[in-house]
């Protein structure tokens, strides 16, 4: 199932001119506040009628100014998860979930309510009203209500923005489960690199109302030219397998046959994970270093060197674990004699990889 979007719309402080087409999976609309992300999602949902454009979901046209097509919001078969859960305060969790199911088309293919409740871990909340729920619990119920409406796509507009860091990590885990266990594509809005790294199959980068890049998450996160949150957000996504939990608080992973050690993560041995390694956390050494406290040393060869506007350079290193990025100074690159093809070692402290940068690997890869 693909989503095609082409929109032109004049806002008081923004001229929107967006065009993209994305495949099934989790597509993240990524950009700074004011880039037009929420406007795009509202146009897809039918909450905003753009001046011109076309929106089609798997070939079904929802909006087309040239053809005179406008499908009203309640007929678009889309589930919307807002920044605030927007649950009905006078209803219990069970009744809020049932309200979502009331909109689902009849017939085979509907989500089993018991499965959704189990998937989101909300079984113990069914008889409570929203006033007695935490922010994270409310969002999990909102996700469940959207799923039970049997949508053709879920729209999520910064659903973690109102939560603290602990609750964000909790909801990200549930969103990963939804991504992997429920056959429904998701269009997800965020300006958080961690959320992109954890969830995205593909990324559309918006800047001042324009589409400036789209593609697989692995490629977009590695491109400093389009990262809206700055060069310090640039990093690589590595796929790995959990080997074992160690008694000293670390988890051992293996990526392309190379060992990696990270602070303890929840997945058990055998689980497939994807971790983000920020370019500014990687140190390069021509020879294999010894006598260091860093536990992760990955040999490879320089694949590319990109000079920045200032004193920095971005070095891409091909390793058996995957491509890594290192942000170093021009002076360091000259001192090391770096050139494309040069043998090199990437050095990474275990504690540099934050728990929120490690998540379940999307089915079908990045």
Describe the structure.
- GO terms for molecular function: ABC-type transporter activity; ATP binding; ATP hydrolysis activity; molybdate ion transmembrane transporter activity.
- The chain folds into two domains: 3-228, Rossmann fold (3-Layer(aba) Sandwich), CATH 3.40.50.300; 236-360, OB fold (Dihydrolipoamide Acetyltransferase, E2P), CATH 2.40.50.100.
- Helix 3 packs antiparallel against helix 4.
- The protein has eight helices and 21 strands.
- A hairpin with a 2-residue loop joins strand 13 and strand 14 (258-263).
- It has 366 residues and is an alpha+beta fold.
- The mean pLDDT is 90.
- The chain has a six-stranded mixed beta sheet, with helices on both faces.
């Amino acid at each position: 199932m693909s989503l095609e979007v082409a929109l032109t719309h004049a806002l008081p402080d923004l001229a929107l001119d967006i065009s993209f087409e994305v495949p099934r999976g989790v597509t993240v609309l990524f950009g700074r506040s004011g880039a037009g992300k929420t406007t795009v999602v509202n146009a897809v949902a039918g909450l905003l009628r753009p001046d011109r454009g076309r929106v089609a979901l798997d070939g079904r046209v929802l909006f087309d100014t040239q053809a005179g097509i406008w499908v009203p919001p309640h007929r678009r078969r889309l589930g919307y998860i807002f920044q605030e859960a927007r649950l009905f305060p006078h209803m219990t969790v069970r009744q809020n979930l049932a309200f979502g199911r009331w909109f689902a088309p009849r017939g085979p293919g509907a989500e089993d309510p018991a499965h959704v409740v189990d998937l989101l871990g909300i079984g113990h909340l069914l008889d409570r009203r929203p006033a007695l729920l935490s922010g994270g619990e409310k969002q999990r119920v909102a996700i469940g209500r959207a799923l039970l409406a049997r949508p053709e796509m879920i729209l999520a507009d910064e659903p973690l923005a109102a939560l603290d860091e602990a609750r964000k990590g909790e909801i990200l885990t549930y969103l990963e489960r939804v991504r992997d266990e429920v056959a429904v594509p998701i269009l997800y809005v965020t300006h958080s690199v961690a959320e992109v790294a954890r969830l995205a199959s593909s990324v559309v980068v918006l800047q001042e109302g324009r589409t400036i890049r789209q593609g697989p998450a692995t490629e977009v996160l590695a491109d400093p030219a389009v990262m809206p949150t700055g060069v310090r957000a640039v990093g690589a996504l590595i796929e790995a397998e959990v080997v074992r939990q160690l008694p000293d608080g670390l988890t051992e992973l293996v990526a392309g046959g190379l060992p990696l050690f990270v602070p303890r993560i929840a997945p058990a041995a055998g689980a497939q994970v994807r971790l983000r390694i920020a370019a500014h956390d990687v140190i390069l050494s021509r020879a294999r270093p010894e006598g260091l406290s860093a536990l992760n040393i990955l040999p490879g060869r320089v694949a590319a060197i990109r000079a920045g506007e200032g004193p920095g350079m971005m070095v891409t290193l091909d390793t058996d674990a995957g491509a890594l990025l290192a942000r170093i100074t021009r002076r360091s690159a000259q001192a090391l004699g770096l050139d494309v093809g040069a043998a090199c070692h990437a050095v990474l402290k275990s504690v540099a990889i934050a728990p929120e940068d490690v998540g379940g690997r999307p089915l079908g890869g990045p």
